[in-house]
Amino acid sequence: MKYRDMAKGVFSSREETPQSRIMLIGKETTDLEALKKCLPPNYAIEVVEWAASSKRGKRQYDLIILAGCSLISQLPALSKALTYYPPVIFHGSAISAKERIKARRLGVISFVVSSPEEQELVAAIENVIQYTRVQSQPAKKNTLFCQEVTKALGQLLSDQPGFGVKDLGQKLQLSQSTVYRKIKEAFDQSPNRLIAAYRCYEAAKLLSGSDQNITEIAYTCGFSSSTYLARTFKQFYGITPRQFRKDGLSSAQFVRIFE
Fold it and tell me: What's the pTM?
């Protein structure tokens, strides 16, 4: 399930928004500091020059603001350097549709053209942070069950790649009706869609971390064909497995519901 521009409007006031950790990254520290002054003080904003971004690997951020389109092509390198790769907002001059498509494939979910008061950037930050916070709430309420389900999915995929909801229920020792209810509460997904998401998640890891061909990956992850993998993968990641590998992407650049 890929991050998208799903929020339409500001969900809450800045006074109500908990402090969020933001990496403001670009090439010129002076420009970044000037941009930081335009943003509300309730954000924990860390100004980082691009050259030093790889040293932030052990830190976790709620959001990255990328200042300057010249850095878009470097996002795969940044994703590999960070332990957790958060959503990215691009901030700068207007860019072409072709450049926006490339940026979205590299994890950018919102585009904001710079302006004197940066009101649009503030709204975009609040929308993204609020949306991702809401998305994470179901899992937080059921942490132990989520861990149990994730472990079961991994074992089933290893032992019988073509498993289904019935097999998952038996593994969890729950009835199908209970499995549906608890998974819907914990992940906000139906069991079938959760299984498909997990297969795609594992496929993404193999695409970026192995030299297996796409057909082999499809069978390893429980898909009956590479065509079926491609169709399902595109539903969650927005691009085909072939394009995902060609662009040098990683699963860390997308919403991770299993970590």
Answer: 0.55
